[in-house]
Amino acid sequence: MLTKKKQRKFLAKKNKEWQTYLQAYNDSRDPEALHQLRLALKKLHAVARFSKACCGGQALKDFQHGLQDMFKQAGIIRDAGNHLQLLEHFHTIPTTYVHQQAQLQAVAIAEFTGQVKAFRRRGIRAAKRLLSHVQPVTIDCIRDWYAKQLISTGILLTASGDDLHEARKQIKDLLYILKLLPSEATAQLRLDADYLDQLQEAIGQWHDAVVIAAIWADRDLEGSPAMALECREKEAAVQRLAENFYLRVHLPRISSPG
User: Ranges for the CHAD domain (predicted)?
Assistant: First the structure.
């Protein structure tokens, strides 16, 4: 059984984290604070999805209404900075593009910081509602949720594009929830968390390469062939890891002595 107490403790911790990092980013514009803010929100979203599936209620709706906009706006800022870093891997970036991305990021930062008070107010309200909707979750429901998520993820891993990116999101949710579960549940699930982490990391690297190649697709630049090659190599790495997913994601059963 995943108790109300354990879930509420986790939610309270993550709620405190996002508020701390929101203030830190507003004060410093530190990209790491923005990253940690988004990470705390991702974990809250994972719990909201899990709670909705196992207990019903309004948990997911609460997140969407109170916290999702902050998460998306923070992502716009992050993307503008990440694109420049990823492009530098292939060639020197034209000054005009650097200025363009810097301007986009500056506008996104101004919009985000201008809404910090509203983000905090709506987020705190949503956080309180999330806490109020927590219900204990049985081992049977935990097993059923993971079984459905693994089947869905396995199907998504056979595709590419947005489906592959969605598979990564689901894998990360599986890992976030796994850390919250009681030992009895994790023992029954027998999931190989290291394998799942390697897989989501490989998909993330592939996705970064694809995004940059798409941005640069209409520009005849020296690094374009290298980008295309890297996309193919990253996708091949994902396919190798994803092969026999359902078998590889489970750890071997431990035989009882005697």
Answer: 1-258
